Amino acid sequence: MSPRSALRIVRAPDVVPQIAPAHPVVKWVGGKTRLLPELQARMPAKFDRYFEAFAGGAALFFRVAPTRAVLSDSNPDLVNLYRTLATNVAGVIRGLEKHRALHDETHYYKTRTRWNDRNESWPASERAATFIYLNKTCFNGLWRVNRAGDFNVPIGRYVDPPICVPEALRAAAAALARADLRRGDYRDAVTDAGRGDFAYFDPPYDPLTPTASFTSYTAGMFGQDQQRELAQTARELVGRGCKVMLSNSDTPFVRSLYKGFQIDRVKCARAINSDAAKRGEVDEVIVTG
Ligand SMILES: C[S@@+](CC[C@H](N)C(=O)[O-])C[C@H]1O[C@@H](n2cnc3c(N)ncnc32)[C@H](O)[C@@H]1O
Questions:
Q1: Rounded to the nearest whole angstrom, what is the distance from the C-alpha of residue 4 to the centroid of ligand 1?
Q2: How many other C-beta atoms can be found within 10 angstroms of the C-beta atom of residue 160?
Q3: Tens digits of per-residue pLDDT, 147-195?
Q4: Chain center to CA of 98
Q5: Which of 29, 36, 51, 74 best tests ligand 1's pocket when mutated (most atoms within 8 Å of CB)?
Q6: What pTM was estimated for this model as a whole?
């Protein structure tokens, strides 16, 4: 048989572009990765637009990978990171490769000082890469700023921290590129949410004890007045026909705010206590309306 007669015309199968599943690119206090099955079980099966207004690590957003989404947070560095990943993931990967090559204690503290220097001017991709670098190498992967807005976490004790994982960054960038990325207060993010849409809120926790508060994702505060306003916003959204889901600590105060909503208690591991012995499972609520 000649090589020619061995050729057969084979119809190409329909090619569906494979997009790798995306995951959070930063470790964030209150990250919801472990609660994802509970959250997904309570979300509506269908919705028009997805709104997540306290994005943080955005675990649920990355899991759902919605085609139409508004993703928002009040932390400007976090939103700049997401915007830069969406538009220039290659630049962020290059920046991270440089950090990976230089990583040691001296480089960490030099980078942290530079991060906090208000006079420094940064190319967006370098700033974004530096955010990820500090997040991956700092103690406990904890992003914490002081009242002046300075990042003040010491170096972590990791042998080989995953500073740059290009495939993971590209997958996250593809999901982010489909979203409307906004920076600011949660109320501004949901002004146009309405009938058929779905909004998920994961605000800073109502503290389980008066001293357990962790409110330092940004230099701002989220106290009981803000929790009340959020409950009011949730009611307004439900009134406009938007489906709402919210997670928070299981406290009498939170339960009182969401009377009339479905409130489910779930167990969640929290790792915000710097004393490992005091970390563990706590009760949270998932509120739906
Ligand atoms: C509990 S974290 C979200 C965790 C996230 N769901 C995850 O999976 O990592 C709360 C987030 O709310 C943001 N935040 C605090 N006050 C805010 C406000 N008034 N409006 C919007 N975002 C706010 C913080 O910057 C922080 O990223």
A1: 63
A2: 7
A3: 888 999 999 998 889 999 999 999 999 999 999 999 999 999 999 999 9
A4: 24
A5: 74
A6: 0.88
